[in-house]
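#struct-pred
JK: can someone run the complex with adenosine-5'-diphosphate? inputs below
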Amino acid sequence: MQDIQEKGTISIHTENIFPIIKKFLYSDNEIFLRELVANAVDASLKIKRLSSLGQYQGDISDIKVEIVFDEKKKIITISDNGLGMTAEEIKKYINQIAFSGATEFVEKFKDAKDANEIIGKFGLGFYSAFMVADQVEIQTLSYQEGAEPVRWICDGSTEFEISKGNRTKRGTDIILHINKDSKEFLDKNKLQQILDKYCMFLPVPIKFGTKTEQKSDSEDKEGNPKYKSVEIDNIINNTSPIWTKAPAELKDEDYLNFYKELYPFSEDPLFWIHLNVDYPFNLTGVLYFPKVKNDFEMQRNKIKLFSRQVFITDEVKDVVPEFLMLLHGVIDSPDIPLNVSRSFLQGDSNVKKINSYITKKVADKLAELFKNDRQAYEEKWPDIGLFVKYGMISEDKFYDKAKDFALVTNTKDEHFTLEEYKEKIKPVQTDKDGTLIYIYSTDITKQDTFIQSANKKGYDVLVMNSPIDTHFISQLEQKLEKTSLKRVDANVADKLINKDDNTVHVLNDDEKAKVKAVFEKAITKPNMHVEVESLNPDELPVIVTMDEFMRRMKDMSQLGGGMSFYGTMPDNYKVAINGNHKLIGRILQTENKEEQTQLAKQAFDLALLSQGMLTGAELTEFVNRSVSLI
Ligand code: ADP
Ligand code: MG
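RT: done, structure tokens with the ligand placed:
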């Protein structure tokens, strides 16, 4: 090529798209750096590939990308020694912006919600440079034999200029003359922060430095003084992160170290899954199960999404199933384009496949852990239980797999699978209609009296004390046949499971009515409904319970489940009087009405006390009364 001299118009048939780009993309304009570095990396990988195919004989031993900025001159330069471009290639790849025409563009950008969407749709990666620059210059030299260096310059209008360039070595410099509004990018910390975000795991070494105004002693070939280039950092990235390696090459330590690299201040994860598929889509990655703290929100958005090692986003909502959002780690898929947008993710069929693949992988891993080392699995259960239950509630497919390794835990801290548990309680906890009754406690300290009464009857009590359990309980009732769950204090132990057994009735109807009247008079606390029942003589004389259905509705309304009607209702309790208890007989026989009332009050307060429901003035009154009774 002779002296290259050409002026022309970028072939988009609209007056000037750059103001549009700037205006619409302003919010996330930092991605210009990601786009340009990604292009430099692509060019580097391409020359390596050509070399390995024997199509290029030159030196590729020092492939790298350099980002250098000059605060005084207001320049950021992204340089690579990749394959470079010829003038023809610039015309083809840079000048002819890859979209069909202005009409389509103008039509579509109107609805665009973010920069990624526009850039992705129209192949404007390179042009994102104009979000931050008034003028963009390319200096490039193609790897091809006899290629001439080329310079391309454009000031953000549709006019460009191509001329002879100054590069003497293969590769490309993209020189950005930063505009007034984007001075923030001429800052070491700012650039470092962007590079840390997007470039941490790029497959080519990335160097980052500043150029000072100082002239150095040496001169270049033409006798111009060279500017001193000061490297601030050497290579800033890890070019072969573990997800690009084969699982067989890796030790536990490698996974743990990588976790630390990603989340420097976190506790070690419980375990991890190495993802690796190449059909029907490409996906690699490592997902970690963290130790779940109660602060769920803090833990979300910890999965990073990459495309060929370029960071895209940590909002993986549509790629990763909702219930796995608490996992940590990385996912890398070239099938997700670099400049992906939310609307793309939602509609893309690959993304849907990725989603179900991840669900399956997680289920398989859990099944494997359960099968291989049940004890270790049980120890981890308090942490993984949350994921598993959440998954079982939100995805039927996951439920079907997880039902074999989901555990329930009883008050004795024994773990069972759902099937095991069913078999365990069937003989004792089936009611007269053949329904299996699971009994659970949400607070083993407060509900201790009830748990003990239930245990006395031979009933087992499960612990369901995490926030998700309310939903898990409903899910189990829907999924398990002829099964119903009741909180241990939903009724007196004798009536938790409705069996046709003949309890002795010590009191006749007349006596029952009398007892009821005595207690109704004695109990001044509101919303207490007295009922005289024939219970085991060993049970307490008075037991206070709240109906399962009523309590659940109230719980739901508190969780914001829309049942606000129940939320406004007062707590209604049943006060079960054990007609078969000795004390009740004594109350009946007591002539003195005052003494009768005192005994009834005492028995009622004891019931409240055993459930931690006796506080304040009521507690003081109880203590005083107890003293006088002694
Ligand atoms: P994409 O990267 O999606 O192809 P871009 O707008 O980012 O779109 O880049 C357009 C084209 O310009 C690239 O495909 C490549 O051919 C060329 N290109 C951009 N930057 C470089 C570079 N640093 N070295 C070589 N070619 C480049
Ligand atoms: Mg690109």
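RT: quick notes.
Residues 349-372 form the longest helix (24 residues).
The chain has four domains: 4-218, 242-377, 406-496, 509-629.
JK: thanks, will look after standup
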